[in-house]
């Protein structure tokens, strides 16, 4: 069940004090270091990816689609592919970064799995989502402008078959200011323990400001209910990164 380590160049994108970071973008520079960056930046990332596979093993239905929205390099897609055993199920991975999708295609082509995978370069806000037994948004909704989040989730709820599931993993904030600050500090400790310097941490924080817009778990669960999900709860959390499952 364990996922193979994913090799990647080391993330040194924010280490040069002379290079202005600019707003964070999923461009070819990020693509070249992405597996290393996300593993060293998101506490619990490997667990969430591996368990997304287990959930797919349980929820994927025959003759249905399983969506990986904001699929990046296909880590979730590959994990789900390893666990899906039902016939005629297609995993649809969508990402609007051309550089991500191009590299993802290479990695999927190299994977020996037999479940069909369809990759689309496009905006998940404009993509056709239908006949879904499972939808995954692993660390993607946080990059969608807040005003579009409800419509996206309504579309997902409509597309889900009865008994379908959404997995929503996000960076989160906490309503209590002291707990919020503690979780931010613990996240920075996590990054430091994975070799990032204070300078890199500060520069990355500036770069993702207003690009990655986190919300509280309460805000996510309220929106999921408004979007048409009958129930939702957190199944995994480490510091300020949480993963929610929502049932149709
Ligand atoms: C943090 S990464 C997701 C990581 C990935 N799900 C994983 O588990 O490895 C966020 C991804 O969402 C994509 N993205 C952000 N907004 C998007 C949108 N509106 N449509 C499609 N993809 C989007 C980005 O290009 C990026 O690849
Ligand atoms: O919050 C941070 O500092 C992060 O680096 C998080 C995060 C994410 O959650 O997507 C931001 C951008 C990169 O894709 C990798 C990790």
From TrEMBL:
GO molecular function, one term: carboxyl- or carbamoyltransferase activity
The entry's keywords: Methyltransferase, S-adenosyl-L-methionine, Transferase
Positions annotated to bind S-adenosyl-L-methionine: 45, 70-72, 95-96, 123-124, 138, 205
Transmembrane portions of the chain: none
UniProt xrefs under Pfam families: Methyltransf_25
Domain of life where this protein originates: Bacteria
Domain Methyltransferase: 66-164
InterPro entries: CmoA, Methyltransf_25, SAM-dependent_MTases_sf
Catalysed reactions, as listed in the record: prephenate + S-adenosyl-L-methionine = carboxy-S-adenosyl-L-methionine + 3-phenylpyruvate + H2O
E.C. no: 2.1.3.-
One GO term (biological process): methylation
Top-level enzyme category: transferase
Keyword Cytoplasm tagged: no
Signal peptide: none
Assembly with partners or alone: Homodimer.
NCBIfam families: carboxy-S-adenosyl-L-methionine synthase CmoA, PRK15451.1
Family recorded in the similarity comment: Belongs to the class I-like SAM-binding methyltransferase superfamily. Cx-SAM synthase family.
Described purpose of this protein according to its UniProt entry: Catalyzes the conversion of S-adenosyl-L-methionine (SAM) to carboxy-S-adenosyl-L-methionine (Cx-SAM).
Protein name (record): Carboxy-S-adenosyl-L-methionine synthase
């Amino acid at each position: 069940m364990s996922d193979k380590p994913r090799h990647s160049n080391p993330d040194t994108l924010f280490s040069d004090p002379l290079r202005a970071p600019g707003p964070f973008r999923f461009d070819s520079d990020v693509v070249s270091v992405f597996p290393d960056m996300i593993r060293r930046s998101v506490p619990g990332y490997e667990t969430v990816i591996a368990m997304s596979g287990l959930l797919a093993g349980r929820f994927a239905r025959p003759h249905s689609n399983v969506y990986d929205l904001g699929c990046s390099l296909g880590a979730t897609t590959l994990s789900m592919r390893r666990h899906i055993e039902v016939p005629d199920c297609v995993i649809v991975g969508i990402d609007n970064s051309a550089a991500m999708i191009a590299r993802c295609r290479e990695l999927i082509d190299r994977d020996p799995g037999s479940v069909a995978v369809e990759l689309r370069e496009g905006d998940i806000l404009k993509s056709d989502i239908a006949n879904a037994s499972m939808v995954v948004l692993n660390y993607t909704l946080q990059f969608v402008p807040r005003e579009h989040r409800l419509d996206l989730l309504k579309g997902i709820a409509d597309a889900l078959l009865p008994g379908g599931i959404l997995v929503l993993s996000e960076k989160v904030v906490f309503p209590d200011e002291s707990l919020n600050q503690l979780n931010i500090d613990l996240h920075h400790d996590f990054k430091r323990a994975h070799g990032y310097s204070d300078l890199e941490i500060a520069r990355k924080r500036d770069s993702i400001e207003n690009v990655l817009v986190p919300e509280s778990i309460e805000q996510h669960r309220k929106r999921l209910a408004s979007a048409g999900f009958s129930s939702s709860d957190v199944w995994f959390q480490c510091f300020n990164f949480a993963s929610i499952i929502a049932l149709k």
